[in-house]
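#lab-general

N.A. 3:47 PM
ok so I finally got the sequence cleaned up, no stray characters, all 185 residues accounted for. can someone with queue access submit it? mine expired

B.Y. 3:52 PM
send it over

N.A. 3:53 PM
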Amino acid sequence: MLIYPQVNIPDEIVRKNAVHYDIAGKTERDLTKEMNTKGPFSARGPFSKDGPRYWGLTTPSVFWTYDTKQIDSGGCALIRPNVVVTITIILPHLTTSSQASGSFLGKWMKLLNALRNHEEGHAQIAIKEGADLVQLMRTHSSDDTCKDLDNYLQTHGKAILERYENADDDYDKRTNHGADRGVHW
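B.Y. 4:20 PM
back already:
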């Protein structure tokens, strides 16, 4: 029976970026038109011009790497494991807020907060995806051969990535792209 060395698998690194697009207007109709015209595109790839525009968008990127090393005593272990989750959240920025009425600004802030919360839900899915990849490497950080280790991690890692791609779609269906949670006028 081989005894494998303890492998330190660090937590995922999370990098969040905020991007805003400017909109102007004094009415719900004005802002809806602006967001429908200027909002980010999405069709799986970030900023793809083939898909619909959204009022807000989260573009997560989960990148995981590792190397393997043959152990002198036999077997193979992970070295340099790394999971980086980069999240960009794109939201509208109202440039004419000083010209709007207080009641309208209250409605706008309610919608914007709901939109921010919805997009943060997408971000949390990506963070959980990264955490699951870290857990995969923590529970299977060594094997009898480097080929076996790599095959195991690639097979199970691919399943994690596919599961979370579906989780994002399910989240949007469940929340009607946030409309069921306040992303509406």
